[in-house]
């Protein structure tokens, strides 16, 4: 584990226990058993650390949603989408609680821009799922349906935050319940409100496309970080593909599948899938 990842993991434990504001850099370094100098080599400030944590988890959930939507059979897709989202939330509930508190107390412009960016990416993936599942039947209502799906995710997530930590939630039942509700809405919504133009207003100032040069830089960074031979070799071959485009789509797809399975490569896998239109 890198020093940066160690700091993020340990800091999250402290933030979950005592809150962001009450946790000092000194407490974090003591908990990690490192010097303040080592901390500041990784992060310029505590604010930068919390932004890095938000990036880490939002990149993970964004890439997981995209992977589910692009690789799951239609008859299983909606269930898998809901189940994966709530399973992720359940697994990372400590981060979610810290994140909600930070959003509530912070008007940090960088944080707001980042959340708009991730929100727009997830919106586009949910729309892709809706179009796959319901097709032309929801042409006029797909944007309303997207907001309904996101509302389900937000409202039911409260069960993870405001109940006892010992509460045993049946994620399978929850996912099936939301599949039923979503299918009913898709079938019966008849009065659209959100138009394509209204939807696009919220993301028109965001640059959602990743350029090849940016991907090459990210790949080089990941190649230097990775120790696992298969992951490292896969990243190297993908980098060569970006430079020379000499591999077949099937091989590229297999390489992306390799790196998708690594917890620290999900984001670069997501970006590459979109770049290669896979």
How would you describe this structure to a colleague?
This protein is mainly α and 278 residues long. It contains 14 helices and no strands. It has helices spanning 3-18, 25-32, 36-42, 46-71, 74-91, 93-105, 109-134, 142-161, 171-188, 196-201, 212-225, 229-244, 249-260, 266-275. The two termini are 31 Å apart.
Largest sheet: none
H/E topology pattern: HHHHHHHHHHHHHH
User: Per the principal axes of the C-alpha atoms, what is the gross shape?
Assistant: globular
Give the fraction of residues assigned to helices. Answer: over 70%
Provide a count of the helices: 14
Task: Name the average pLDDT.
Answer: 83
Domain count: 3
Count of extended strands? 0
Poorly predicted runs are: none
Keywords: DNA-binding, Repressor
InterPro entries: Homeodomain-like_sf, HTH-type_Tx_Regulator, HTH_TetR
DNA-binding region: 24-43
Domain HTH tetR-type: 1-61
What's the layout of helices and strands?
Layout: H1 3-18, H2 25-32, H3 36-42, H4 46-71, H5 74-91, H6 93-105, H7 109-134, H8 142-161, H9 171-188, H10 196-201, H11 212-225, H12 229-244, H13 249-260, H14 266-275
What are the defining features of this structure?
single chain; 278 residues; mainly alpha; Arc Repressor Mutant, subunit A; 3 domains; 14 helices; 0% strand; HTH-type_Tx_Regulator; Homeodomain-like_sf
Produce a short descriptive summary.
The protein is an all-alpha fold and 278 residues long. It has 14 helices and no strands. Helix 11 packs antiparallel against helix 12 and helix 11 runs antiparallel to helix 14.
